[in-house]
Amino acid sequence: SDPPLRPPVAVTSWHKKRNARITLVGDVRDKLVLLLDDMIDHPSSFLTAAEHLMVQCGARGVYIVASHGLFSGSSLGEVEICPYVMKVIVSNSFPIPPELTSASSKLVQIDIAPLLAEAIRRNHNGESVSYLFDRNPW
């Protein structure tokens, strides 16, 4: 089997509700960065973090990854014009209007319907759902 990947890891945290202070532990210089969260609605904190990582920390590029893309108002347009974000990747768990998806070159939606269907089928038939964690065929 293939050896496990052991990429260098840097961790950043920021407090959306309190202030704009960003804490970074590790080195992101000349590296691609993934900003992960459960959902993205208003992207200002993501865009602030992406700018900080690129300008102040020397990151090569920033990707935003979230489970659910809500994108209220002009949020997706803000991501689109931000030079510090390469792509924003979300599942299709929340419907994004076609006029928004077609207007964005940075949005990537991952279809989770097959995974949910298989989880429901396995649960209904009394099979292991945790099987999907290790052997995801998608």
Topology:
Elements: E1 11-14, E2 22-25, E3 32-40, H1 44-56, E4 61-69, H2 75-81, E5 87-91, H3 98-102, E6 107-110, H4 113-124, H5 131-134
Parallel strand pairs: 3-4, 4-5, 5-6
Antiparallel strand pairs: 1-2
In what order do the strands lie side by side in the largest sheet?
3-4-5-6
The N- to C-terminal Cα distance equals 19 Å
- Give helix % range: 25-40%
Find the structural class using helix and strand composition. alpha/beta
Q: Count of helices? A: 5
Radius of gyration: 17 Å
Order of helices and strands: EEEHEHEHEHH
Oligomeric state of the chains? single chain
Globally, the shape reads globular
Q: Any overview of this molecule?
A:
- With 138 residues, the protein is α/β, with parallel strands linked by helices.
- It contains five helices and six strands; from the N terminus they run βββαβαβαβαα.
- The strands form two sheets. Strands 3-4-5-6 form a four-stranded parallel β-sheet. A two-stranded antiparallel ribbon has the order 1-2.
- A hairpin with a 7-residue loop joins β1 and β2.
Which characteristics define this entry?
alpha/beta, 25% strand, single chain, four-stranded parallel sheet, 138 residues, globular, two-stranded antiparallel ribbon
Task: Describe the structure concisely.
By secondary structure, this protein is of the alpha/beta class. It has helices at about 45-55, 75-80, 100, 115-125, 130-135, and strands at about 10-15, 20-25, 30-40, 60-70, 85-90, 105-110. Helices cover about 30% and strands about 25% of the residues.
